[in-house]
Amino acid sequence: MPRLLIVYNSTTGNTKAMADAIAEGARSLKLDTEVVDAFNVTPEDVMAADAIGFGVPTFNYHAAKPILKLLDDLAGKNVTDKLAIVFGSYGWSGQGAPVVAERLRQMGFRVLDPVIRVKYRPTENELDGCQLLGKDVAMHLKNIRMTENLNA
Ligand SMILES: Cc1cc2nc3c(=O)[nH]c(=O)nc-3n(C[C@H](O)[C@H](O)[C@H](O)COP(=O)(O)O)c2cc1C
């Protein structure tokens, strides 16, 4: 059964709220989904999942450090075509999530659009958007599985 791992960093809970909403959307389509603080995730955990969500707030004009460290630790692993989504809260400049999305693409991940950014605490509407992204990942994973079965 395919599995989605959502890794986040969140100091005041804003990016975590987005992660939880994405998980809710994915689980509503019966996708096995786990939400984990980046401090508790290893590169092996990332490699073992079928799709990864990266929750990336912006601090001091950079992506959150625990996420950048995880990406550094993934260097040299074969992530070709592994499905990923990227999201995060920000306050004014907001480059954290898009910078991470670009880096993931360069590493070989297949990053789904949209990369969702939310200013500070997500509104109900924004959380609905996060839920839709979670559903989208679930549908992509199911399509990949169906194609693999056709080709088997
Ligand atoms: C010390 C500090 C530095 C920050 N630097 C930036 C920044 O450079 N650009 C930006 O867009 N937001 C910045 N922010 C705002 C955070 O991205 C924003 O508060 C966000 O909601 C935090 O998300 P979290 O609760 O998931 O950690 C900063 C916040 C703090 C506390």
Automatic annotation (TrEMBL):
Highest taxon, organism lineage: Archaea
One Gene Ontology molecular-function label: FMN binding
Domain spans labelled Flavodoxin-like: 4-138
Pfam families cross-referenced by the UniProt entry: Flavodoxin_1
Annotated protein name in UniProt: Flavodoxin
Annotated source species: Methanocella paludicola (strain DSM 17711 / JCM 13418 / NBRC 101707 / SANAE)
